[in-house]
Amino acid sequence: MADRIAYDEFAYFHENAEEYGIAYDGPPAVRRQSVEVAPGRRLSALVWGEGPAELVLLHGGAQNAHTWDTVALALDRPLVAIDLPGHGHSDGGIGGSLDVWANADDVAVVVRALAPGARAVVGMSLGGMTALALTDRHPELVPRLVLLDVTPGVDGDKAQSIVQFIDGPETFPSFEELLARTIEFNPTRTESSLRRGILHNAVQRDDGSWVWRYRRFREEGGGGAHPDFGDLWDALGRVSVPLMLVRGMRAQSVVDDADEAELLRRQPSARVEHVAEAGHSVQGDTPLELAALLDDFVP
After folding, report:
1. Could you list the active site residues?
2. pTM, rounded to two decimals
3. What is the residue-level pLDDT of the chain in tens, covering all 299 positions?
4. CATH assignment of 13-297, among 3.40.710.10, 3.40.50.1820, 1.10.10.10, 3.30.70.60
5. What angle do CA 60, 72, 38 make, to 5 degrees?
6. Sequence spans of domains, the chain
């Protein structure tokens, strides 16, 4: 039987800080908290800081709340990072993990409980479209909206490489094989950051094999097939709060010039930022640049 790899989700923050040169004088104030969103279903979140949360962060598909760790350390502001339905430590979604409208309703319950006075909701990829649906359905919860490398124009063709990664093997016999595949599909990231990411996003089974956390709810629609976001263009047109699109400009990005142009056609006052060294995962590739943009957009 393979050796067990110990995991403590709060034991790696010093590595995040060291990798990006963030001042670190001890473990940050972070706690995990869950909120019942419906009878028998709970969403889990990481609550950063002691004061009222200023930001709500929503990760992408097949990720989890720890994808924001370095950004949260750099911001040093009270915030809440939520595990979307069917991801991380959360239970499955009522309509599967990829139903952004149902996700938005669940997230609204968590925001009311943990971040009722948040100044902005920030969402990457699936989390970005969930944030857009949240803005449309629960506008009182979203004073500002930030979309990270996603628009309603993103489809399966544009996200093909990401879908290929997510839709890979069901299990991996060893951590090393899981790490090797992750490195292959994330060429812009350091091995140390990917190793941390795997420990947060996968679990080791009793037989020593590894499985992604989001695979637990695959039968509910949490697999690799990319959802159709097209109906959210109208929702984007209805947004009446300050909006910022942060677009990664490396090859791994899934947003193209046509998407950006359509967003600006529907929201002429939107702020658009291009991050030259980021791919699709802006928070993973360039967390310090993203933190600076968020600090500027959400004073």
Report:
1. 125, 149, 280
2. 0.95
3. 568 899 999 999 999 999 999 999 999 999 999 999 999 999 999 999 999 999 999 999 999 999 999 999 999 999 999 999 999 999 999 888 899 999 999 999 999 999 999 999 999 999 999 999 999 999 999 999 999 999 999 987 777 777 777 778 889 999 999 999 999 988 878 899 999 999 999 999 999 999 999 887 754 444 445 678 989 999 999 999 999 999 999 988 899 999 999 999 999 999 999 999 999 999 999 999 999 999 999 99
4. 3.40.50.1820
5. 50
6. 13-297
CA atoms within 13 A on the CB side of 133: 23
The helix (H) or strand (E) run that includes residue 210 is: strand 210-212
- Residue 105 corresponds to which tokens in the numbers above? 């309703």
The two structure tokens encoding residue 31: 């706690």
